[in-house]
Amino acid sequence: MSTALASVVTNTYTSGFSNSQKPSVDDNIGLFSPTDTPFMANMSKEKAVQVYEEWLEDDLAAAAENAHIEGFDVTTTEGTEPARTGNYCQIFEKDFAVSNTAETVQKYGRSSELGRLRMLKTKELSRDMEYALLNGVQSAGSGSTPRKMKGAFSWVNTTDGRYYTFSATPAATNHITEDILLGVLQAVWDQGVEADTVLCPMTQKRKISAFTDGGRLTINQNASEKKVTMSIRVIETDMGTVAVMAERFIAPTDVSGTKYDKILVYKKDIFSRMTLRPVKETTLATTGDSEKRMLVTEMTLKCRTQKGLGAITNLTRVMPAA
After folding, report:
1. What digits encode the pLDDT tens for the residues 102-124?
2. pLDDT for 124-172, tens place per residue?
3. 228 within 8 A of 218, measured Cβ to Cβ
4. DSSP secondary structure letters along 158-214
């Protein structure tokens, strides 16, 4: 049975007359770009005083048989001096400009356009710093090129078991496995350091979470909350306890258009962020009817020892067959 709609009374004022209606705009501004920087967040901080920061690393002689006859005399051996290494401070910059009119007029979701852009540019700066701390390739710079820091992956010694890489093809078989990961962890341990962190893109994190050989992964089920927990956050190994963290800003390797992932294996306390100039906002000279601002910081990455660092590279993004 159909219901007849009542007719609108002639000359009734309806919402079709829109000149006087206030638009409905949500005052909450959504920001959905990722801003987490786990590598930078989990390292210590130090003060830099030069554009090229250097530090020293000492080493012990290899363990060997040590036995002497009674009443022996000694001929001293020459000592070795500590190894000296360093990294360049890199300048990071973000800028923004707002017309005085745009700053003055009423706006949805914010009272100040400068304030909104300041917040966005600060977050962008953090993302760029995370990217450089991981992927940077060292450069001394010149009058026409910028100084660049050496990022974590550039500190990895690629000549021993701490560095594992697949051949570039075939991509579908270059999967992270338990044996490969444990092999790199052991290679770090063999150098006298216990790695405690595995930093990896999300695809590789999912593959590590699927290390279920022998039923050793416990899948937690909570029926009342309708919740199943299937993620690996910590791995107990013969070489110690290792945290597995997802990282968004590890740059992939591009081989003929195919992207390959990298994984960083390290001990957290070997790294620190050395800041020469903390983030500072500068008001630039007025050259017209607008406000110009610049955010600048200068810093580098300190790696106390390469011995506590490993990597696995050329990992396929293809998920293994079920």
Report:
1. 989 988 888 898 999 999 999 99
2. 999 999 999 999 999 999 999 999 999 999 999 999 999 999 876 667 8
3. no
4. TTSTTEEE--S--GGG----HHHHHHHHHHHHHTT----EEEE-HHHHHHHHT--GG
pTM: 0.85
Q: How many CB atoms lie within 10 A of CB 112?
A: 14
Residue with tokens 């078991």: 161
What single DSSP character describes residue 274?
E
On whether the CB atoms of residues 86 and 301 are closer than 8 A, the answer is: no
Q: Would you give the DSSP letter of residue 218?
A: -
pLDDT in tens, 225-258: 555 555 568 888 999 999 999 999 999 999 888 8
Read off the pLDDT band of 2 (50, 70, 90): low
Take residue 192 and report the two structure tokens written for it: 């006298």
pLDDT of residue 183: 96
pLDDT digits (tens, 9 = 90+) for 283-314: 999 999 999 999 999 999 999 999 999 999 99
Secondary structure in 3-state letters for 132-159: HHHHCCCECCCCCCCCECCCHHHHCCCC
Give 312's strand partners: 164, 263
Q: How far apart are CA 255 and CA 60, in angstroms?
A: 40
Cα–Cα distance between 144 and 280 in angstroms, integer?
24
The token duo for 234 is 């910590």
Query: 139 - beta bridge partners?
Result: 148
HSE at residue 252, side-chain half, CA atoms within 13 A, is 17
Whole-angstrom Cα distance, residue 265 to residue 210? 18
Q: For residue 159, what are the contacts with CB-CB under 8 A and spacing of at least 6?
A: none
Q: What is the DSSP letter of 48?
A: -
Q: Give the closest residue to 199 by CA, choosing from 268, 247, 132.
A: 247
Sign of CA dihedral 258, 263, 163, 139: positive
Nearest to residue 95, comparing CAs of 282, 291, 298, 295? 295
